[in-house]
Write a structure and sequence with these properties.
The protein is mainly alpha-helical and 122 residues long. The chain has one domain (2-96). The chain is 66% helix and 0% strand. It contains seven helices and no strands. It has helices spanning 2-14, 18-27, 40-47, 49-72, 78-92, 105-110, 113-116. Helix 1 packs antiparallel against helix 4. The chain starts with a helix and ends in a 6-residue tail after the last helix.
Length: 122
């Protein structure tokens, strides 16, 4: 049960997109509305060095915190993997942005080849 709770926390923690928050706060609209991918690169180009660097530094911690919590609680095997992978899933498919019609909204918006051909980028 603890692993499931950490996995849900990890997914929601991974769903936080700091580039979106910063853009909405500074510009009044999101990077996605501007046709940009909400990440460090777009933040750096559009919002400047300080915000782009902040976004770039925050993203790795999204994955590290649930893993470190699971490791501290001495979870093992599959029960350690679940909270470790959940932030990655949350980052790629954030809560509130999932289109239940069969395609991920981000895939349709940005035309990623990984969405058209799963596993293609591996």
């Amino acid at each position: 049960m603890l692993s499931l709770t950490l996995s849900v926390f990890g997914y929601l923690w991974g769903s936080i997109l700091p580039a979106e928050w910063m853009a909405r706060r500074r510009l009044g609209h999101s990077l996605v509305e501007m046709g940009e991918n909400p990440g460090a690169s777009a933040s750096w180009r559009i919002l400047g060095f300080r915000i782009g660097f902040s976004v770039m530094m925050f993203d790795p911690f999204k994955g590290a915190i649930p893993y470190l919590l699971a490791e501290t609680l001495r979870l093992q095997d599959f029960w350690l993997v679940m909270p470790s992978v959940a932030p990655v899933v949350g980052h790629n498919w954030p809560a509130g942005r999932f289109n239940w019609g069969g395609t991920w909204s981000g895939c349709r918006r940005w035309g990623h080849s990984e969405c058209r051909f799963p596993g293609h980028g591996l």
